[in-house]
Amino acid sequence: MNVATVRVPAKINLCLGVGPVREDGYHPLATVYQAVGLHDEVRATSRADDEINVVVNSELDVRSELATVPEDDNNLAVKAAKLLRDHTGFVGGVDLAIRKVIPVAGGMAGGSADAAASLVACNDAWGTGLGRADLEFLAAKLGSDVPFLLHGGNAVGGGRGETISPVLARGSYHWVFAIAAEGLSTAAVYAEFDRLNADGKVPEPKVPDALLAALRAGDADALGDALSNDLTEAALSLRPELQDTLEVGIEAGALGAILSGSGPTAMFLASDEQHSLDIAFALTSAAACADVVQSHGPVPGARLA
Ligand SMILES: C[C@](O)(CO)[C@H](O)COP(=O)(O)OP(=O)(O)OC[C@H]1O[C@@H](n2ccc(N)nc2=O)[C@H](O)[C@@H]1O
Ligand SMILES: Nc1ncnc2c1ncn2[C@@H]1O[C@H](COP(=O)(O)OP(=O)(O)OP(=O)(O)O)[C@@H](O)[C@H]1O
């Protein structure tokens, strides 16, 4: 019996450019990912038989959403373990234990993070010895965000999000996250994007030059101005009250304020630790969300603990 524990971060999209829906139902993206310091943990304990089991628990169960995380074959961490086993021909099973901190259905890629962590943890516990490139290949099959969660740091995402390329970046950034009481379905937000754009022509997405320049310079003010998210209108159409949450952070002087991915988490850029506390305080006082979390990025991707 071998045990491997992996810590994996959440992601945010500093920009999220969304193009016209493709024939396979996915949308082409031009995004810059950043991994941030909210971590899930996945522990893999190898089994001699062929069972793959999962249990999920959390010390931060602020929302009923945790109950919606499946403890069966639908869990993305289980899918990852099965994919690795099929790919390598390994004979044996695993018990997976997930400690969730990343908000569920929060637009921060929590499920994708657990899938990335499960790949790394099982690869270690089973001794299957796959390298980075093979793990990234499997990650792309599991979901659009999964390859980035292996990678971590900052990266440009293309294709449907699964193609990762490096970005020149410096600086560490202070973030405040407003966690909503109820999650939003990623598929539903993309469907709303299509509905809202049914009449117009959606241009091919592009990462804004101003954002890349801000990251190269490590300039938090410029980064705040350059944050963007093409899913904003769709997410706000499904959840109009998120506009109020964004405004509370803006009034508290956030350098930038957007929704994280498909939402409903709102993210605010602060200039330093004290500013981050001020924004967190304003959000809490205004009861603008269910929970407030301060964090920083970039941080590394899925790693053995
Ligand atoms: C919103 C983001 O988090 C931004 O990084 C991602 O685009 C979502 O990534 P994800 O949750 O890993 O998405 P997947 O599990 O691959 O897809 C979930 C659903 O989202 C929609 N989807 C996802 C990615 C994409 N580029 N276009 C899409 O239309 C599809 O309806 C898909 O069925
Ligand atoms: N390990 C997992 N953790 C969380 N959710 C999971 C997991 N496995 C499957 N799911 C399912 O996926 C749904 C979406 O959860 P997730 O937390 O990944 O959303 P998200 O963070 O909004 O995703 P993204 O940012 O990638 O769009 C959950 O409601 C749950 O049903």
UniProtKB/TrEMBL annotation:
Q: What does this protein do?
A: Catalyzes the phosphorylation of the position 2 hydroxy group of 4-diphosphocytidyl-2C-methyl-D-erythritol.
Protein name per the record:
4-diphosphocytidyl-2-C-methyl-D-erythritol kinase
How would you classify this enzyme at the top EC level?
A: transferase
The keyword Nucleotide-binding appears for this protein? yes
Ranked from the top, the taxonomy reads: Bacteria, Bacillati, Actinomycetota, Actinomycetes, Propionibacteriales
UniProt-listed NCBIfam families: ispE, PRK03188.1
Instruction: Give start and end of each GHMP kinase N-terminal domain.
Output: 75-153
Question: Where are the active-site residues found?
Answer: K11, D145
Q: Which InterPro entries match?
A: GHMP_kinase_C_dom (IPR013750), GHMP_kinase_C_sf (IPR036554), GHMP_kinase_N_dom (IPR006204), IspE (IPR004424), Ribosomal_Su5_D2-typ_SF (IPR020568), Ribsml_uS5_D2-typ_fold_subgr (IPR014721)
Q: Which family does the record assign?
A: Belongs to the GHMP kinase family. IspE subfamily.
Q: Which PANTHER family match?
A: 4-DIPHOSPHOCYTIDYL-2-C-METHYL-D-ERYTHRITOL KINASE, CHLOROPLASTIC
Please state the Enzyme Commission number of this protein. Answer: 2.7.1.148
User: What is the reaction catalyzed?
Assistant: 4-CDP-2-C-methyl-D-erythritol + ATP = 4-CDP-2-C-methyl-D-erythritol 2-phosphate + ADP + H(+)
Going by the UniProt record, its keywords in alphabetical order are: ATP-binding, Isoprene biosynthesis, Kinase, Nucleotide-binding, Transferase
Pathway where this protein functions:
Isoprenoid biosynthesis; isopentenyl diphosphate biosynthesis via DXP pathway; isopentenyl diphosphate from 1-deoxy-D-xylulose 5-phosphate: step 3/6
| Domain (GHMP kinase C-terminal): residue spans on this chain | 211-285
Pfam families membership: GHMP_kinases_C (PF08544), GHMP_kinases_N (PF00288)
UniProt organism field: Aeromicrobium panaciterrae
Q: Tell me which residues bind ATP.
A: P103, V104, A105, G106, G107, M108, A109, G110, G111, S112, A113
- Gene Ontology MF terms in the entry: 4-(cytidine 5'-diphospho)-2-C-methyl-D-erythritol kinase activity
Keyword ATP-binding among record annotations: yes
